[in-house]
Design brief:
With about 350 residues, the protein is of the alpha+beta class. About 15% of the residues lie in helices and about 25% in strands. The protein contains five helices and 18 strands. A five-stranded mixed barrel has the order 6-12-14-16-15. A three-stranded antiparallel β-sheet has the order 1-2-3. Strands 4-5 form a two-stranded antiparallel sheet. A hairpin with a 2-residue loop joins strand 15 and strand 16. About 40% of the residues are buried. Its EC number is 3.6.1.1. Belongs to the PPase family. InterPro entries: Pyrophosphatase (IPR008162), Pyrophosphatase_sf (IPR036649).
Length: about 350
């Protein structure tokens, strides 16, 4: 417990609805130089949206237009720190949705055109994660990988990207369906990142959460520009250099819905964190699911596939159409303070 408390005492900022990764008023960031964000609406309100632009200033979908993988040496001339040459294939773009120590449940709006980040709404109310002692909000920088979808697909011909009647099957590893969402990432570096920031991460391992009968993969990763990134190569290094963090992660996901009156979450593999190799296979599979979806070779349900840069996708739109979509979003101010009161929850063991 003492190791865990040392880990959690890193000077968490005062409670705030959102820590933004917009380009205005911030210093240069290696990965952030390629993508910028634009706010619409008021933070801590249901009409708030955070849209993304590429380096040329054109609107894009962060879910579909930001590439999954990072260039092996540099991206648009912007170098990235690397630990070893053989880790080039383990570098991915991560979209930060929720900064560490914050409570507002921000997420990519998969059902809206261009998939901006918004705050999740449930039963007509903005969603905030509870503070469960000794944790404060999210204990990592939380986000997602682009172009990766936990929507398991199958084909009666056992070949990829065919059209079939039932696009869903149970994950062979967990015996549960996917949750039809982008794959989640817990970034464990030392810095507090910003909502909307795009960072380069290397994957260390993965946890299989079973959320209401669906597989909800949680990748464990570290920002490659973190001062300690060179120490981390696989899941065992997390316990070695950040003792207690994996245990805290397991407990956090097990308990975080209990204050809402729900039972504790369950895990596949008895809560065992799988290694990097296993995680990379999961990412590969989820990327194939996304490809099938963007090529209209499976039914994604309510997922909005509008994109600007996927040239062979039937869902591609023009830059002018993307601009019109953003401009159609209302940005009226909301004077009400919808930030949730900060309280501690003490759960019996």
């Amino acid at each position: 417990m003492s190791a865990l408390l040392r880990l959690l005492r890193t000077g968490a900022p005062a409670a705030a609805c959102l820590r933004l990764g917009t380009s205005a008023g911030t210093g240069p960031r290696r990965a952030m130089a390629l993508y910028h964000t634009e706010e619409r609406g008021q933070p801590c309100s249901q009409n708030y949206r955070l849209f993304f632009k590429d380096v040329t200033g054109h609107y894009i979908s962060p879910f579909h237009d930001i590439p999954l993988k990072v260039n092996s040496k540099e991206e648009n001339g912007i170098p990235t720190k690397k630990a070893r040459n053989d880790e080039y294939e383990n570098l991915f773009n991560m979209i930060v949705e929720i900064p560490r120590w914050t409570n507002a449940k921000m997420e990519i709006a998969t059902e809206e055109p261009l998939n901006p980040i918004k705050q999740y709404v449930k039963d007509g109310k903005l969603r905030y994660v509870a503070n469960i002692f000794p944790y404060k909000g999210y204990i990592w920088n939380y986000g997602t990988l682009p172009q990766a979808l936990t929507f398991t697909v199958s084909s009666p011909w056992n070949t990829p990207f065919q059209t079939w009647e039932d696009p869903r099957e149970k994950d062979k590893s967990t015996n549960c369906f996917g949750d039809n969402d982008p794959i989640d990432v817990c970034e464990i570096g030392s810095k507090i990142l910003s909502c909307g920031e795009v960072v380069h991460v290397k994957i260390l391992g993965i946890l299989a959460l079973i959320d209401e009968g669906e597989t909800d993969w949680k990748l464990i990763a570290i920002n490659v520009n973190d001062p300690e990134a060179s120490k981390f190569h696989d899941i065992d290094d997390v316990e070695k250099f950040k003792p207690g963090y994996l245990e805290a992660t397991l407990n956090w996901f097990r308990l975080y819905k209990v204050p809402d009156g729900k039972p504790e979450n369950q895990f596949a593999f008895n809560g065992e964190f799988k290694n990097k190799a296993f995680a990379l296979e999961v990412i590969k599979s989820t990327h194939q699911c996304w490809k099938a979806l963007l090529m209209k070779k499976c039914n994604g349900g309510a997922i909005n596939c509008t994109n600007v840069q996927i040239s062979d996708s039937p869902f591609r739109c023009t830059q002018e159409e993307a601009r019109s979509l953003v401009e159609s979003v209302l940005s009226s101010p909301n004077k009400e303070n919808n930030e949730e009161e900060q309280v501690w929850h003490f759960l019996s063991k």
